[in-house]
Amino acid sequence: MPAPLRQELLQLIAELAYREGDFVLSSGARSSYYINCKTVTLHPRGAYLVGRLCGELLAPATVAVAGLTLGADPIVTAISVLSAQTNHPVSGLIIRKEPKGHGARSQIEGPLPPPGSWVTVVEDVVTTGQSLGLAVDVLRAAGYQVQQGITVVDRQQGGADYLAAKGVTLTALFTLADVQTIYQQLQSPATITTG
């Protein structure tokens, strides 16, 4: 993983996605910080960096990347688009939280690979791992092999352990501590030295 690109992405996350204050999370819990990676994964340079760096982590057997809508959508797209320029192109799959109520009533959107294919799940931020876990369950029910998960940021609040119990190894580009370190550096006034 190229260090300059990784550092550039970390800087973007700290600048655009991370905030401190008083927030209520989707779980109902309160938090002194909030991280919204969609501000990065939908940014032109951010999408490129996420697609490139996450794509480099894909297991060789991967034929598709998938994730639960909405956080994973831009990541799935970025990885798939950039993979077209490599010797290992992968399709993108979007997983609905519930099956569609009309038409084919599908829960997985995209060019479906044959059953038994290896699919890697992706997410922007992992906390408990429940969103990735739902994606894993839907894909496995459709007959796919899912053993790898990739996230941009792991908040390190049990998600990796939850996924490991499901037989999925989670790899994160960054931990929450990585982001907070850069954020704090950005908040500190520049030190001025005199000669």
Task: Characterize the structure shown.
With 195 residues, the chain is of the alpha/beta class. It has a domain at 43-176: Rossmann fold (3-Layer(aba) Sandwich). 37% of the residues lie in helices and 26% in strands. The chain has helices at 3-17, 38-41, 44-55, 73-83, 130-141, 159-165, 176-187, and strands at residues 18-24, 30-35, 62-68, 91-95, 108-109, 118-126, 148-154, 169-175. It has a six-stranded mixed β-sheet with strand order 5-4-3-6-7-8, with helices on both faces. Helix 1 packs across helix 3 (44-55) and helix 3 (44-55) packs across helix 4. The longest helix is centred in the first third of the chain and has 15 residues, at 3-17. The mean pLDDT is 93.
Stretches with pLDDT under 50, minimum 5 residues: none
Largest β-sheet summary:
6 strands, mixed
How does CATH name the architecture of the domain at 43-176? 3-Layer(aba) Sandwich
Report the mean per-residue pLDDT as an integer. Answer: 93
Residue share in helix: 25-40%
Arrangement of strands in the largest sheet: 5-4-3-6-7-8
Gyration radius over CA: 18 Å
The chain-level structural class is alpha/beta
**Cα-to-Cα separation, first versus last residue:** 39 Å
Beta-strand content estimate: 25-35%
Series of secondary-structure elements, N-terminal to C-terminal? HEEHHEHEEEHEHEH
State the CATH class of the domain at 43-176. Alpha Beta
> Looking at the structure, what is the overall shape?
globular
Question: Care to count the β-strands?
Answer: 8
